[in-house]
Design a protein that fits this description.
The complex is a heterodimer of chains A (400) and B (354).
Chain A: E1 5-14, H1 20-29, H2 57-63, H3 74-90, E2 100-105, H4 111-123, H5 137-146, E3 152-156, H6 162-175, E4 181-188, H7 192-200, E5 224-232, H8 233-238, E6 245-254, H9 267-280, E7 289-291, H10 298-312, E8 318-320, H11 323-326, H12 333-347, E9 379-386, E10 390-397
Parallel strand pairs in A: 2-3, 2-4, 7-8, 7-9
Antiparallel strand pairs in A: 1-5, 1-6, 4-5, 6-10, 9-10
Chain B: E1 5-12, H1 48-53, H2 56-72, E2 79-83, H3 89-101, H4 110-113, H5 119-128, E3 133-137, H6 143-157, E4 162-169, H7 173-180, E5 208-215, E6 225-233, H8 238-251, E7 261-264, H9 274-282, E8 289-291, H10 293-296, H11 303-316, E9 335-342, E10 346-353
Parallel strand pairs in B: 2-3, 2-4, 7-8, 7-9
Antiparallel strand pairs in B: 1-5, 4-5, 6-10, 9-10
The chains are: A alpha/beta (400), B alpha/beta (354).
Chain lengths: 400, 354
C-alpha cells in the first residue's frame, strides 16, 4: 500500500484574515480583501485596486514574537506567520531528524525590498542586508531558522503555480519514503515590480476581478502566505495527529502554447486535471467542488473553463474562484486555495464566486453565486496555472 | 529500483565545454573575477529572429539542453526540470531599472514576462511542444541538486523514462558588483588558474548552464550513472560533514576507499576552503582529488559544472591535468564523489558511478 498523505496542519494569512479562522469568517461573510492600496508605496495608489494583508511589517513581526530587525522581507514575515500557525495546529515539531522537511514557493521572493534599495545596492553600502534577501530561497530559510530547523529544505518557483507544486513535491517525497512530515506552502508580498509587470500586460481589472463573468477584465493582485503540514499515514497515526484531510491526487503539465497566454482550449489545464483525477482513482462524478484558478483574465477563465467543461461535461461539480476575496497572490495562490478547499470539506460549504453577474457566452456552466451550507463536500479539485504554461492540479478529500 | 543513466550532457560554461568531442583541451584563461560563458554558435540551436530577443540565460539554457538531448537521441523528454539560484538576472534587472528610472511609467512587458524563474524550462517546453512535467527549483546552492533529486524520484516513480535536468545561472555586471558587497568576490583581479594560490578572502564569480538527459535505460554514450544526492545546510562542524559523507556513501554500500576520484568545491576563499582540506585529508587521503571553480567561477548552480566534469571523466576515463589537485592516477575510474558547498552554507554531495 502506498503511504497515505494526510493533512495535519493549516496556516494562512491573506487580505481577508490573519489566520485560518479569520479567513474562513471572511469567506462566510463574503468580505473581500480587495481595496485601495494602503501599505505599498507606488504611483498606482488609488488607481489599481489590490488585496493587501492588513498589517504593517512591524505588526507581522509582533504577531510571531520577533523583535523588528532589518533583514526580513514582507515575504519572509508572511511566510513565518502562516508557517507558525500550521505547525502549531498540527502539533508536530520540525525536528532535525532527516525525516522532516520544509518546501516553500514564491515568484519574486524578496523583490519588495530589492526594488526600494536597488540603487543603494549599486551605489553604496547602506542596504547590503537586503541583497541577501532578494532571492527565492531567503524566505524559506527564514522560516527554517524561526523553527531552528536544519533538515531538508527547498524552494520552488514556477510562477503562479509555485505553491501548488510545493504541495505536490511534499506529497511525493512522503510517498517515496524520503520524509515522514513536511511543511509545504508558499508566499508572495505585493511589490511594485509585479503590479507594474501585470499592468504592462494590461490584465489588471480596475474594478476588482470578476472571474468567469462575461464582462471580466483582468485580475487583481493580492499578497499572502499559506502552509500545510503533510504527514505520512503511518506517522500521523503513530503520533496521534488530528487528521484534517488527505491529498489524493496531483499532476503538473505544461500548456506549451505561449510564455504568458493559455491555449484557447486549455490543453495543459485539461491534462493536469485529468492526470490528477486518474491518479486519485476517482471518477469525475466524485468531485464535489472545484476551486478554480479563475484569475478573471479574459484568457485564463476561457481556457480553464473550456478545460473543465471538456473533462466534466454534463457531470459538472460546483465551481468557484476565491480570487475576488484574496486577489491573485501569485506564488502563494495554490496553497491558499488548497487551504480553502480543505475548509470547504471540513465545514461542508462551497464558497461563492463573488463579483459574478453574467455567464460567459462560451461556457455552458456558471460558478456558484451564493455561500452554500450543508453541502456534500468530500472531494475538492483545485487548480493553479502560471506563466510558462505551468499547470498544476491537486485533489484533496476528507479521510474515509 | 531503477538505475539512472546519464545518456547525454550539454554544457555552456566559461570554458569550451559545448563540444563533447573535446574535453578541456583548450583552457580559457581569465584575468578578471567575473567569468562569462564561451558562446557556442547559438544559431545552430535557435532561429536568428528569436535569438535576438533572448537574454543570455535563455540562450545558454536552450543550447545546452539541445546538445544533451541530441546526444541522447531524445526528441521529447518525459519531464523538464531546471534549477537556478538567481533566475533570469538580465531580464529582472532590465524591468527593475526601467521601472525605477521611469518612475513606474512607460514600461514594456517583454522583460517582465521573461523574468520568472521558470522561463528557461518553459521556453524549452515551448520549443519542443513538450506538455510533460515541468518544475523549477530556486533554493540557492541546492538548486541543481534538488533538480537531480526530483529527476531520480520521477524515474523511480515510473512517471518518466527520461528526464531533461539542468542547472543554470547567469551573471551580469550589476549582479557581480551587488553580490560583491556581501564579500563574495576577491578584491583584486586574480588569474583564474591561480585561484588556489591566492590566499585571500573571496572567490571569482561565474555562470553556466549544464543539462543532462537522465534515463532508466542505458544509452549509446556512457557517462555513467547518477547514484545518489544529498543536501545539508550549515553543518555545525567538520566532523558532522565527515560523518554525513560516510553515511551518504554507506547508503550506496561504499566506503571512502571505494571512491576513485573526489571532486571538491574549492573556491580559493580561505574563509571557507578549510573543510575541503579536512575531508580530503581524513576520508580521502591517497585518493585522487580534483577541483573546478577556477574554470567556471562560483555561482549558486556551480556544482552543475562539477557534474559535467564527473560525467566526462567517467566516459573518457581520463582526468585532465588542469583539474587535478595531486599527481595520483587511479586504475580505472568507477566511482566519483562530488562534495561542494556554496559559501559554507549549502553543502551538497553527488555520487556518479560507472
Amino acid at each position: 500500500m502506498p503511504e497515505r498523505i494526510y493533512i495535519t496542519g493549516l496556516g494562512l494569512i491573506s487580505a481577508i484574515g490573519m489566520d485560518v479562522e479569520e479567513n474562513f469568517a471572511s469567506l462566510e461573510k463574503q468580505y473581500s480583501g480587495i481595496g485601495e492600496i494602503q501599505y505599498l508605496e507606488t504611483i498606482h495608489k488609488g488607481e489599481i485596486p489590490v488585496a493587501e494583508v492588513k498589517a504593517t511589517d512591524e505588526e507581522l513581526f509582533d504577531r510571531v514574537g520577533i523583535n523588528p530587525v532589518k533583514g526580513y522581507t514582507r515575504t519572509a514575515l508572511l511566510s513565518i506567520n502562516a508557517a507558525r500557525e500550521a505547525v502549531e495546529m498540527s502539533g508536530s515539531e520540525l525536528s532535525n531528524d532527516k525525516r522532516t522537511g520544509i518546501i516553500s514557493a514564491t515568484t519574486v521572493g524578496g523583490m519588495v525590498k530589492s526594488e526600494n534599495h536597488y540603487l543603494d545596492f549599486l551605489n553604496n553600502d547602506n542596504s547590503n542586508i537586503y541583497i541577501g534577501t532578494h532571492d527565492c530561497g531567503d524566505a524559506t530559510e527564514k522560516v527554517a531558522s524561526y523553527f531552528g530547523f536544519k533538515g531538508f529544505m527547498t524552494t520552488i518557483s514556477t510562477a503562479c503555480s509555485s505553491s501548488l507544486n510545493s504541495i505536490m513535491l511534499g506529497a511525493r517525497m512522503i510517498r517515496n519514503g524520503k520524509l515522514d512530515r513536511v511543511l509545504v506552502g508558499g508566499a508572495d508580498a505585493l511589490s511594485r515590480f509585479t503590479i507594474n509587470g501585470f499592468n504592462t500586460l494590461m490584465i489588471l481589472d480596475r474594478d476588482g476581478c470578476k472571474p468567469f463573468d462575461e464582462n471580466r477584465n483582468g485580475l487583481t493582485l493580492g499578497e499572502g502566505a499559506a502552509f500545510i503540514v503533510l504527514e505520512s499515514g503511518t506517522s500521523s497515526i503513530k503520533n496521534n495527529r488530528k487528521i484534517l484531510g488527505e491529498v489524493k491526487g496531483w499532476a503538473n503539465a505544461n500548456d506549451a502554447y505561449h510564455q504568458t497566454a493559455s491555449s484557447p482550449e486549455g490543453e495543459g489545464a485539461y491534462m493536469a486535471m485529468s492526470k490528477a483525477l486518474k491518479m486519485s482513482g476517482m471518477d469525475v462524478t466524485d468531485i464535489d467542488y472545484i476551486n478554480a484558478h479563475g484569475t478573471g483574465t479574459i484568457n485564463n477563465d476561457l481556457s480553464e473553463g473550456k478545460a473543465i467543461e471538456k473533462l466534466f461535461g454534463i457531470k459538472m461539480p460546483k465551481v468557484s474562484s476565491t480570487k475576488p476575496y484574496t486577489g491573485h497572490t501569485l506564488g502563494a495562490a495554490g496553497v491558499i486555495e488548497a487551504v480553502f478547499s480543505i475548509l470547504a470539506i471540513k465545514n461542508r460549504v462551497v464558497f461563492p464566486n463573488m463579483n459574478f453577474k453574467q455567464p460567459m457566452k462560451e461556457l455552458s456552466f456558471s460558478p456558484v453565486k451564493e455561500f452554500l451550507e450543508e453541502q456534500k463536500v468530500h472531494k475538492v479539485l483545485t487548480n493553479s496555472f502560471g506563466f510558462g504554461g505551468n499547470n498544476s492540479t491537486i485533489i484533496v478529500s476528507d479521510v474515509s | 529500483m531503477s538505475e539512472i543513466f546519464i545518456n547525454g550532457i550539454g554544457a555552456v560554461t566559461p570554458q569550451h565545454t559545448h563540444d563533447n568531442a573535446r574535453f578541456l583541451e583548450h583552457i580559457e584563461i581569465y584575468d578578471h573575477n567575473n567569468l562569462r560563458c564561451v558562446n557556442p554558435n547559438f544559431k545552430e540551436f535557435i532561429p536568428p529572429m528569436e535569438l535576438r530577443r533572448m537574454s543570455r540565460i535563455i540562450r545558454m539554457g536552450i543550447a545546452s539542453a539541445r546538445i544533451s538531448m541530441k546526444e541522447a537521441g531524445v526528441e521529447m523528454p518525459d519531464a523538464i526540470i531546471t534549477g537556478t539560484g538567481m533566475g533570469c538576472v538580465e531580464d529582472t534587472e532590465k524591468f527593475l531599472i526601467s521601472m525605477i528610472d521611469n518612475k513606474e511609467l512607460l514600461l514594456t512587458p517583454t522583460s517582465f514576462i521573461r523574468s520568472t524563474h521558470n522561463t528557461v524550462g518553459a521556453q524549452i517546453a515551448l520549443k519542443l511542444k513538450c506538455h510533460n512535467y515541468n518544475f523549477t527549483y530556486v533554493h540557492r546552492g541546492f538548486s541543481f541538486e534538488n533538480v537531480l533529486q526530483d529527476a531520480i524520484m520521477l524515474i523511480r516513480e515510473g512517471d518518466a523514462g527520461n528526464v531533461l535536468a539542468g542547472g543554470i545561472d547567469e551573471t551580469s555586471d550589476n549582479h557581480y558588483s551587488i553580490s560583491g558587497r556581501l564579500g563574495f568576490w576577491k578584491d583584486k583581479p586574480v588569474r583564474n588558474l591561480d585561484l588556489l594560490k591566492e590566499r585571500s578572502n573571496g572567490t571569482i564569480a561565474g555562470e553556466g548552464s549544464v543539462f543532462a538527459m537522465l534515463s532508466n535505460v542505458k544509452g549509446e554514450k556512457d557517462y555513467g550513472r547518477l547514484t545518489d544526492i544529498d543536501t545539508f545546510i550549515s553543518p555545525e562542524s567538520h566532523l558532522y560533514t565527515k560523518q554525513r559523507i560516510e553515511n551518504f556513501l554507506g547508503q550506496s554500500n561504499l566506503n571512502p576507499g571505494d571512491i576513485d576520484l573526489v571532486i571538491l568545491g574549492y573556491s580559493g576563499d580561505i574563509r571557507y576552503d578549510e573543510v575541503f582540506d579536512t575531508i580530503r585529508n581524513s576520508l580521502f587521503s591517497g585518493i585522487p582529488a580534483a577541483y573546478f571553480k577556477h574554470l567556471c567561477g562560483e555561482y549558486y548552480t556551480s556544482s552543475s559544472f562539477a557534474f559535467w566534469l564527473a560525467a566526462q571523466i567517467l566516459e573518457k576515463q581520463f582526468i585532465p591535468a588542469v583539474v587535478k589537485l595531486d599527481d595520483l592516477n587511479p586504475n580505472g575510474i568507477n566511482n566519483v564523489l562530488i562534495y561542494n558547498h556554496f559559501m559554507e552554507h549549502h553543502h551538497t554531495l553527488m555520487l556518479l558511478s560507472k
